Amino acid sequence: MTPQLRAGTLHVRIGAREIAAILAAALPITVLTWERSAGLVGLAWLIFCITQWRILVAEDSPARAALRNSASGGFIAFAAIVAVLSLLHGIPSRAFDNPSRFALVLPMLATIACLRPSCRAWLTGVSAAGVYVGVLALVQSLALDFEAASGFTNQNKFGFISATFALLGIAGMRLPANVRPPLALLVGGVVGALIAMLLSATRGAWVAFLVPLLSWLLFARVITPRHKAIAIGSVLAIAAALTLTSGTIVHSRLSAMIADLGSYIPGVVESSVDTRVELWRGSVMMFEAHPLIGIGPGRYREANRQLIAEGHLSERIAEHGHPHNEYLAWLASGGVIGFAGLLAVLLGPLAYFIRCACGGGGTAPELVRGLGLGGALFVAATMIFAFTDAYFYIHYATVYYALTVAMLVGFIEAEKARR
């Protein structure tokens, strides 16, 4: 951004690098405000990437190197598998509207690697979003008497995306001071995001936050054993207090889940837990009938109703278009082949981020290790949450995952190219 003084007026010229930074910050700020906003940000990114085609195809462009890693490879493999399933099933293109959004990853990360925008703007957006969802959750829970905070979107997605804001903010604290927002803003964002996550009453989001965080604290080599013990002990003590104290939202939700699991009878649906287990049973039946290529994307509801008509499942799940489990959704709709595609877009980025976080035994730049940690926590949380929710069934959740991975990979590759 170049300030120029003309005739007593300060004019600010915004270049491509600044536009990239603004678009990066726009995603976390808007994703939980309006469900279509993530799609609009993704469209803006796509148009912006097209305008930058010259730098992407230049001979000395770092774009090619940025695409040669397991994160990009995972998305390329997923695209190939979806194409194979489309040919085998003859599925109309609309069935692949949602998975097609993963295509945004490749041009976006390549553009970021070439332009090298600062990640400060994006992380500022994450922190601001954390503060925003925290305030929103408090207003909905305390002033408006909502049973569970949900923002302006789905309750489960609100809780989980808030959890990712907290994890990304924690990782942001590991970055050098000159490339991250003020520590006070980061802490405020983490606290706000945690409040929103708790008040959403989303059990899957709680687990998705705790498991990656505790795993990092346990295995991190940059934390001394004494500090590890303090951090892990504090997290576990808070979690135990919320779980065991009667009247807390955590205690109520976990007690209800245990009671529902204990009383579940196949074919009888009377709670959200019963619904999930019944849907999971149906998904396993679909997979067993078509193990290689599944029933076909977009056909879950139809197959579900067929099993109900045959008397295998409860009629109370007839309207569900997914099994509230991303892994079972892909096993049912795409068989082993489709499941491999899902694993590619999860494990490919996870492996890449873990390598960056480890940083060759600590020799990698601090920025690469910090962003690698954020990416690893983000993808690991998504993988855990996917056990309790068909996360990629919703368009904006798919775009949020794809664009966040792309930004993190792009920032990392830009730093590598700078070296």
Query: How many runs of DSSP E, i.e. beta strands?
Result: 2
> What is the element string, with H for helices and E for strands?
EEHHHHHHHHHHHHHHHHH
Q: How many strands, which pairing sense, and closed or not: the largest β-sheet?
A: 2 strands, antiparallel
- Which percent range describes the beta-strand content? under 5%
pLDDT average, as an integer?
Answer: 88
So what's the overall shape? globular
- Please give the share of residues in helix: 55-70%
Taking the alpha carbons of the first and last residues, their distance comes to 22 Å
Helical run tally: 17
Spatial strand order of the main sheet: 1-2
Structural class based on helices, strands and sheet pairing? mainly alpha
User: Could you state the oligomeric state of the chains shown?
Assistant: single chain
Low-confidence stretches: none
Task: Write a brief caption for the model.
The chain contains 17 helices and two strands.
Account of the 3D structure:
- By secondary structure, the chain is mostly helical.
- 69% of the residues lie in helices and 2% in strands.
- It has helices at 16-30, 37-51, 53-57, 63-67, 70-89, 105-115, 120-143, 155-172, 183-199, 203-219, 225-244, 249-263, 272-289, 300-309, 326-362, 366-385, 395-418; strands spanning 2-6, 9-13.
- The protein has a two-stranded antiparallel sheet.
- A hairpin with a 2-residue loop joins strand 1 (2-6) and strand 2 (9-13).
- Helix 7 (120-143) crosses helix 8 and helix 8 runs antiparallel to helix 16 (366-385).
- The longest helix has 37 residues, at 326-362.
- The two termini are 22 Å apart.
